[in-house]
Amino acid sequence: MALKGLFRKKTVQDILKQVEKNNLEGHDALGKHLTAKDLTAFGIAAIVGAGIFSTIGKASFDGGPAVIFLFLFTAVACSFAAFAYAEFASMVPVSGSAYTYSYVAFGELIAWIIGWALIMEYSVGNITVAISWSDYFTGLLSSGGIDLPQWVQMDYLTASNGFKDATALMEGGKTFENLSAGMQDAYTAWTTSPMIGSFHFVADLPALLIIVLITALIYRGMKESRNASNIMVVVKLCIVLLVIAVGIFYVDIDNWHPFAPNGVSGVLKGVSAVFFAYIGFDAISTTAEECKDPQRDLPRGMMWAIVICTLLYIAIALVLTGMVRYNTLDVGDPLAFVFDQLHLKWMSGIIAVSAVVAMASVLLVFQMGQPRIWMSMSRDGLLPKKFSTVHPKFKTPSFATIVVGFVVAVPALFMNLTMVTDLCSIGTLFAFVLVCAGVLALQNKTDIPRGKFKTPYINSRYIFPLLIVVALVISFGYNKKATMGFITNETKINDSQFIITSLNKEETQKVYNYLLSIEGKTSTTEKLDVEHLLSQYQEDDAKYEKVVAGLPISDSIKYESGFDLFKHKIPMWIFLIVIVGLVFWSHKENLSLIPLLGLICCLYMMAELSVWNWIYFSVWLIIGLIIYFSFSRKNSKLNLENLDNNQD
């Protein structure tokens, strides 16, 4: 087979003919029940969830009140991508989302890659939300006097890693009571869990429960899913508005000073958590075949969902950081926390209940999107035919829905929340980048039928290079130290917790004695906390640097330098190299500015993620390519059609 067969494309005309044929025959056709209002509700259901009730706390802790700018930046980036999604959805109104769009724009291999990435996005996203739902649900049970054992409400990785870190800190003198609440829970889960041989059985069983219930609902039908989603959206919007209405009377504007305590780097530190709050809008595009008027309603649903949710996020962030100091918000349930701090227990209870509802609605939309991606890939022959089976009564992709339930439920028992959040974000951002690039690739083609919606055209030929110049001026003029540190790969000092948890017993004792000598003590009957002794110097950068330099341990523990430091910058260097290429492409082809900015913003957020996420993502893509070349390439319908034509 020729190499060009890897990039064979589906035409918009053929896709639309096939959908029309399916509808007329009733074969593999989905039920059409959704309007623009329903799509907006699905978008809000997906977006207003973990962001409002969980990750906004950590983002506010890192960025202070200025975290609102991160919400704005992320919303703008998603809006740019939403324009591209809306244009494709209007042009190709079928299930499949970015996978189908890439098949039209770039060809089969790229379509497979993006489809495989979307499988990870939705699966990992569902795992993330299920774990968050479990945290809120068990917290709600606890407040009602029902305390489940820690080992049935925590994943294996968190318990294992938490036990190791807790043990290291306690060996350094920290008492169990002085460990963070999360570390205490992890230690307890590990030490009290039943054992099978040497294996500790730690599994998040409530996460399994919600996945089973949601999967059953989605299997039952789109109409039932829509009705359940709409009810849950109304409930959580009422709660969010109640939080804003009550909280605004407790805002102390002094808490907004300083507005950006950790500068730009602090604000951007929460990019993964905040972006995760927005990713649900692209799940709307997977319901295209179930819309009554997809070419009109899909663009409207996406835009309204992003606008409404952004306003809610900004209002909540301002209220939270106004009610309490930003540096107290590093908690898993920030909304309940702030009202608890102000002794409004009745509000904390309402928020706990609404969070359980909100998380369930997010899971519903995510769990609904994944089977439709698999169904589209199966229709094209890239996955086994069974995945495109539509239930004759419920009109849902039945087999794919059941498989998705298993794919999400099993890892949710054991996987770590931070890992899956970042993996979900990088998979989604990759999809956004390719959708934006697809619009750019097709913008000058005249042989493609256009839908009712088209992204407004602004020529980027001169505007884009000007924006790059402005970015360089800001970087070297106002953030020169950080910029030069990035370019020169300046050595970075590790924080106190990393240093202490990296030591063995002998090294811990040496550090302990050294820190005592700095304090002017030679011995003490009090059991001191080594991590606390070291961390007290972190408030003064110069003093901390001097103390760390004198620690009697290896420099590899004290500092991060050389390739160990540079590897974390590889994603950003990839971003900068791509920017140079885009400058030339935009100048040559007069690219449209909005999808170009969408591509850049999403790629930048990818660059802000850890290099380990890039590595894990690359491993996932390699697995996908193995499957493509061993099964999908030869079973592709386009390939079979070519073989039939050649035989004729």
Question: Helix tally?
Answer: 29
What is the topology, as strand order, of the major beta sheet? 1-2
Mean pLDDT across every amino acid position: 79
Radius of gyration (Å):
26 Å
Helix content: 55-70%
Structural class: mainly alpha
Shape: globular
Share in β-strands: under 5%
In short:
With 648 residues, the chain is mainly alpha-helical. The protein is 69% helix and 1% strand. It has 29 helices and 4 strands.
Descriptive account of the structure:
With 648 residues, this protein is mainly alpha-helical. Helices cover 69% and strands 1% of the residues. It contains 29 helices and four strands. It has helices spanning 12-25, 36-47, 50-63, 67-91, 97-105, 108-143, 156-171, 181-192, 205-220, 222-247, 263-268, 271-278, 294-323, 334-341, 345-379, 398-412, 417-442, 463-478, 480-488, 496-501, 505-519, 530-535, 541-550, 555-558, 562-566, 570-589, 593-607, 611-635, 637-647; strands at residues 195-196, 199-200, 492-493, 559-560. The strands form two sheets. It has a two-stranded antiparallel sheet with strand order 1-2. A two-stranded antiparallel sheet has the order 3-4. A hairpin with a 2-residue loop joins strand 1 (195-196) and strand 2 (199-200). Helix 2 packs across helix 15, helix 6 crosses helix 16 (398-412) and helix 18 (463-478) crosses helix 19. The model has no long low-confidence stretch (mean pLDDT 79).
